[in-house]
Amino acid sequence: MWYWDAPRLVFGEDAVEYLEQISGKRAFIVTDKIMVDLGFVEIVQKKLQKANIESTYYDEVEPDPSVQTAKKGVELCREYKPDWIIGLGGGSPMDVAKAIDFMYENPDMKLENLSPFIQFKLHDKCKIIQIPTTSGTGAEITWAVVLTDLEEKRKLLLASREIVADVAIIDPQFPAKMPPKLTSSTGLDALTHAVEGYVSIWGNIYSDAMCEKAVELIFQNLETAVEDGSNMEARENMHNAATMAGLGFGNSQAGIAHSMGHSIGAVLHKPHGFCVGIALPYTMDFNISAEGGPKEKYAILARKALSISEKDDFEASKILIEKIKDVMKNVGAPLSYKEFEIPKKDFEENFDLIVLNADQDSCTATSRPIPTREEFQMLLRKAYEGE
Ligand SMILES: [Fe+2]
Q1: What is the whole-number distance in angstroms between the Cα of residue 245 and the centre of ligand 1?
Q2: pLDDT of residue 226
Q3: What does the alpha-carbon distance between residue 57 and residue 70 come to, in Å, rounded to a whole number?
Q4: What is the C-alpha to C-alpha distance for residues 244 and 195, in angstroms, rounded to an integer?
Q5: Cα(277) to centroid of ligand 1, in Å?
Q6: Please, are residues 380 and 260 in contact by the beta-carbon 8 Å criterion?
Q7: What's the 324 CA to ligand 1 centre distance in angstroms?
Q8: CA 231 to centroid of ligand 1, rounded, Å
Q9: Distance 193 CA to ligand 1 centre (A)
Q10: Whose CA, among 43, 125, 175, 377, lies 20 to 30 Å from 281?
Q11: DSSP letter string over 266-331?
């Protein structure tokens, strides 16, 4: 038995108008200050007004959001008593919206109880809508929440299929405001989700279908979206591709490019998209040469997404890896951690911790093959030097 979890998807031009149709009394918007400055919060509030829904917003979500930010948010949420919680922004506001919803609907539970092994109430007192404004994280779809506990100085990885949103609004007007670098880094995050979700040991026919289409759309549209941010066709295709990749890896699992990227990002405080994107080609190279590795599936992906007829799986996989590197170059992405301006000294001083974290990351166990500690060392050094 397996599961497929997804919210209702409302997508396409002016999808945000869906908010005019919902019923309720009060909406609590979880967001950040950039969303307020860009006028996105105002757009959402005006749509809610048309549905006769009062709204307020909490705009204190920071990058790499903290447990403390979520706890402050839920206090305000409890005072406001909403029947809708709306996450608006990149992955951080959407993750905090999930945590706030959980604590609001389960006041007697600790945040740590947000786990697949514990029963709790959701979607009862309140429903949740996610509105992504970047095209990459897939947080509008996924059922994980990553928060940093500032007091205990640790990352908290919370997850439950029950936290999947009721509705995700995939409206391209929001990512259309992203500058080229953010378009590039978030787009490579989406590409990494799709490729890794496709070869995960938890991959299934539904996640495969989403990952295949996502890779095809990203190859066709990412370079245009970075070069010409006003091209709404490319923006819309990238926005849908990111959600498809989210559905794909969210219903399978990411892989060791995410293990390495998570670790580098957390230890050296670098943003997620390039951290995982840089690792992707190195990990694919490693995977195709390994006994029992997924080269057959990479080859299928290459033939579908690139319309090639190369019969040898290893060679077809190589073509896919080269294509990913070409796209990375064309969107101005760094191809190594050194090029990503991580100082050698910082990398070396923290190397053992980076390796340990990558090894213990939740994405490692569902990869094939699973690298040994020594192989992670080799992969991280290659990805640093760009070899
Ligand atoms: Fe990611």
Answers
A1: 10
A2: 98
A3: 13
A4: 12
A5: 9
A6: yes
A7: 16
A8: 24
A9: 6
A10: 175
A11: HHHT--HHHHHHHHHHHHHHHHHHSTT-SHHHHHHHHHHHH------HHHHHHHHHHHHHHHHHHT
What separation in Å is there between the alpha carbon of 199 and the centre of ligand 1?
15
Q: Is the pLDDT of residue 119 over 90?
A: no
Kindly report, residue by residue over 283-316, the tens digit of the pLDDT.
Answer: 999 999 988 889 999 999 999 999 999 999 999 9
Alpha carbon of 159 to those of 103, 106, 163, 210: distances in Å? Answer: 13, 15, 8, 21
Here the tokens at position 7 are: 């919210």
Which residues have CB atoms below 5 A from the ion given as ligand 1?
189
Rounded alpha-carbon distances, angstroms, from residue 265 to 309, 350, 382: 37, 12, 17
What tokens appear for 108 in the block? Answer: 């007697």
- Distance, CA 78 to ligand 1 centroid (Å)? 31
Name the token pair of 257: 């490019």
127-152 as b/e: b if 16+ CB within 10 A: bbbbbbbbbbbbbbbbbbbbbbeeee
Q: Which domains does the chain have, with CATH numbers?
A: 8-175 (3.40.50.1970), 178-385 (1.20.1090.10)
Q: Among 53, 58, 50, which Cα is nearest to 24's?
A: 53
Query: CA 191, CA 242: separation in Å to the nearest integer?
Result: 8
Average of per-residue pLDDT across 227-243: 98
Residue 109 CA to ligand 1 centre (angstroms): 28
CA of 239 to the centre of ligand 1 (A): 15
Q: Which residues contact 143 (CB under 8 A, 6 or more apart)?
A: 5, 159, 160, 161, 162, 163, 164, 250
* CA of 107 relative to ligand 1 center, distance in Å: 30
How many angstroms separate the alpha carbon of residue 190 from the centre of ligand 1? 7
